[in-house]
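Quick one:
INPUT:
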C-alpha cells in the first residue's frame, strides 16, 4: 500500500470527494481511500509526500500507432517483425513514463500490440492497457504500397467482412478502417471518401456481432457523415467536419470525434518531420481549415476523445505535446483538454467503471504533475513527477 500525501485535486476529475487537498491510499490495483489532507494518522506502508502537486487520473491516447518511431513511412514499412516489436515496446514504455495508462492502437504491423498485451499477461513486461485494432482495413488505393505491413487491403463487402474477421481472429479488440484519404500518403486526398457504403456496413456488422466496434479514419466532411450513418463508434481526426456532421454527432452517446493535434503540428513543422514528398505542403494548405472545423465542433459542445497519432521521436522530445496542441491549434479550454485526456476518453472507450476519474474503487492509475495544469496547460511540457500503474512507480 502507498499513501500519497498533500495531493492537489481538480474537482471535475474526482468523484465522491469534494475538497481539493487530499491524502490518497492505493494498492497495486485500486484506489482504497481518499481523505482530507492530514487526516490519516496511522499508516503501514510507503508514504510519498507530493507537496501540493496536482494528482490526475491516468491519461488516455485513443489514437496512436505504437510501431511509429518517426514520421517516415518508408523507413517504418521496411522494418521486420523483431525491430518493430522492440520499437513498439519502447514507445509504450515512454507513454507510461508520461502518464498514459490506456492506449488505443489504431493499426500496427504483425499484430505486435496484441503481442505486448499477451506478454504483459504472462507477467514479463509492464505496459499500458492497449486496445488493439491490428491491421488497418483499406480499399485498393494508390499509396497503399507505403503501408504494406500496416494495411489489410480489401474490396467489396465480402472481402471487407473477411478482412475484419481476420483482425478479430488474431485477438484484436476493435476494427480500424480508412474512410477517407490520408495526409501522410503521397497520393492521398484527405477530403476524398475512398470506401463505399456497403463495404463500411459489412465491417460494422462483423464488429457488432462480436460485441465490438469500428474506428474510422475520416478527414473529409462527406466521409465523416458516411461513417456516422454507417454506425462507426469513433471518427478519427475529423479535420474537415462540417455543420451537418456536427449536428449529427451532437448529443450522441455512441459516436464520438477523436481529434489528433500532435500529428497536425508535427506535419506542418519542418523541424519535427521527415515526411513523404508533398505531405508537409499538403498539411500547410489545410491547416487553417482544420483549425476552424475542429474548433467549431468543440464550440458546439461535442464530447471529444484524446488522440494524437504521435510518433515516438516527437513524443519523447516534446512531452505534453497533445495537451499543448489542443490549446495552440484548436483553442480548447485547459480544463476541457484535461477532461478529454481522462474522463471523456474513459467513457468513449467504455472503461468509465474503472478509469477516467479519481474515485475510491477505481484503478490506482495516478499521475502527479508539478504545477496546476487546469490553470496553465503548458506545465504539461514537463514529464510527470510520478506515475502509478499496476504496482509500478515511475519517477521522472
Ligand atoms: Zn493514425
Amino acid at each position: 500500500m502507498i499513501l500519497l500525501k498533500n495531493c492537489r485535486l481538480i474537482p471535475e476529475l474526482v468523484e465522491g470527494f469534494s475538497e481539493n487537498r487530499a491524502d490518497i491510499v492505493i494498492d497495486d490495483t485500486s484506489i482504497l481511500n481518499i481523505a482530507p489532507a492530514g487526516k490519516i494518522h496511522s499508516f503501514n506502508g510507503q508514504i510519498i509526500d507530493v507537496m501540493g502537486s496536482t494528482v490526475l487520473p491516468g491519461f488516455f491516447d485513443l489514437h496512436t500507432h505504437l510501431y511509429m518511431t518517426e514520421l517516415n513511412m518508408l523507413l517504418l514499412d521496411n522494418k521486420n517483425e523483431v525491430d518493430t516489436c522492440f520499437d513498439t515496446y519502447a514507445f509504450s514504455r515512454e507513454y507510461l513514463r508520461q502518464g498514459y495508462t490506456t492506449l488505443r492502437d489504431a493499426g500496427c504491423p504483425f499484430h505486435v500490440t496484441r503481442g505486448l498485451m499477451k506478454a504483459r499477461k504472462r507477467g514479463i513486461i509492464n505496459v499500458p492497457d492497449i486496445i488493439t485494432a491490428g491491421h488497418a482495413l483499406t480499399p485498393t488505393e494508390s499509396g497503399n504500397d507505403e503501408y504494406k505491413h500496416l494495411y489489410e487491403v480489401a474490396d467489396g463487402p465480402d472481402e471487407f467482412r473477411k478482412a475484419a474477421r481476420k483482425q478479430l481472429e488474431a485477438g484484436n479488440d476493435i476494427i480500424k478502417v480508412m474512410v477517407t484519404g490520408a495526409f501522410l500518403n503521397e497520393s492521398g486526398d484527405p477530403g476524398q471518401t475512398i470506401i463505399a457504403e456497403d463495404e463500411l456496413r459489412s465491417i460494422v456488422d462483423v464488429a457488432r456481432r462480436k460485441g465490438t466496434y469500428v474506428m474510422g479514419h475520416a478527414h473529409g466532411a462527406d466521409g465523416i457523415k458516411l461513417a456516422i450513418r454507417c454506425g462507426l463508434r469513433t471518427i478519427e481526426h475529423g479535420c474537415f467536419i462540417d455543420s451537418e456532421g456536427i449536428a449529427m454527432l451532437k448529443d450522441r452517446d455512441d459516436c464520438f470525434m477523436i481529434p489528433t493535434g500532435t500529428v497536425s503540428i508535427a506535419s506542418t513543422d519542418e523541424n519535427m518531420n521527415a515526411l513523404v514528398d508533398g505531405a508537409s505542403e499538403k498539411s500547410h494548405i489545410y491547416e487553417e481549415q482544420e483549425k476552424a472545423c475542429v474548433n467549431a465542433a468543440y464550440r458546439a459542445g461535442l464530447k471529444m476523445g484524446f488522440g494524437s497519432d504521435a510518433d515516438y521521436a516527437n513524443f519523447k522530445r516534446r512531452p505534453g505535446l497533445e495537451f499543448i496542441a489542443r490549446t495552440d491549434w484548436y483553442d480548447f479550454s485547459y480544463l476541457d483538454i484535461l477532461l478529454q485526456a481522462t474522463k471523456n476518453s474513459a467513457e468513449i472507450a467504455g472503461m468509465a467503471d474503472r478509469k477516467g476519474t479519481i474515485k475510491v474503487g477505481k484503478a490506482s492509475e495516478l499521475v502527479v504533475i508539478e504545477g496546476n495544469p487546469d490553470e496553465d496547460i503548458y506545465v504539461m511540457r514537463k514529464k510527470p513527477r510520478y506515475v502509478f500503474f499496476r504496482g509500478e512507480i515511475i519517477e521522472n
